Amino acid sequence: MDRSTLPGDLVRLVAGHPHDPLDFLRLRAVCRSWRSAAAFSPPPPFLPWLLARPAGPVHPTASLSFFSLPSGAARSVPAPSSSHRLLGPTRSHLLLSDTTHHLLLLNPLTGTRLPLPDSPFPASSPVIQGYLVPASSDGDSPAPVVLYNARKLFFHFDFMAGGEPTTKPVDRDGWTEVPVPDLVAENMYHNGKLFVCDDQGQVTVFDAVTLAVVGAVPPPPPPPAAPLRRDAFKCTAFVPSGHELLCVIRYFAKDGHGELLEYCGAGLEVYRLEMETEKEDQPRQPHWVQMRSIGDRMLFIGLFQGFSFSAADFPGFKGDCIYFFKLERDKRSCIYRFSMEDGRAEELPGPWMHACTWFVPSLS
Question: Domain containing 21: what range?
């Protein structure tokens, strides 16, 4: 059969189904007529890859290692240079910093590089992490870059052309410092607000324009199920999902050898942030509401942040599930799928990788 004779409508229909961007590129490379037909079909949404996160600067000839959950294939992408280290993954790009604190956003699939203003942190600052907030689907809301360590948090809107006019206090080179009162454990920018969680689970909500505190959210209550081990502690991952902000709580404890391992005795918990009550005569009181089901959603979570997808966009995948990875004693990061329906976690096929994080690939 001559593939080039397939009707363009059929090729465009097929082009909307690959869950892996490399499969989409292979489809376009079959022949000229397929490439032409696929050009009129926007790339479908892609599921996250698992990224083996290097602990420090990488060797000049080293590669970044990825694992595609849909295809079950390992991928390797050349690292940008030996002087760059990974601060965090985002949707479509990796946030990198070199030894002189020059920042770079890199799309490892296309090679596109977006330079950023230098980091506002001094060279002697402790370990820094960061991320690029995904732009809204309407394209009107700007997408800031966020940098933080345990004591300070900065964000920057204007690295892209246009930016966002603002009257908020600005640090040097357009970086805005958020006046966090306590330690920064986790944080997330969502719908014009910054949610900063301290090491006690208390969340302070800042308006991103004025930097005024617009809410304080106490930590979710402990689970009413089986009591936790005394040495167990929880880790909160923020997950933007449409107009909602979710948090997924995982528990960790040490084994008999002193290693920190995931403690699954309490399962995974999902909460939705309610910013105000339904009654107009009551003052605004932000609080977390536990969710027994997340419906059609699939959540992919790391230690501190995660991504949300609709299972309807991915035939063969079911919703009401959380995908996560946990470190085993042999330093292998195993991929698990947790069902909200029955509370069970099952291990999925995966590679021998460690220090992993999720990364959402993009061809843009």
Answer: 1-44
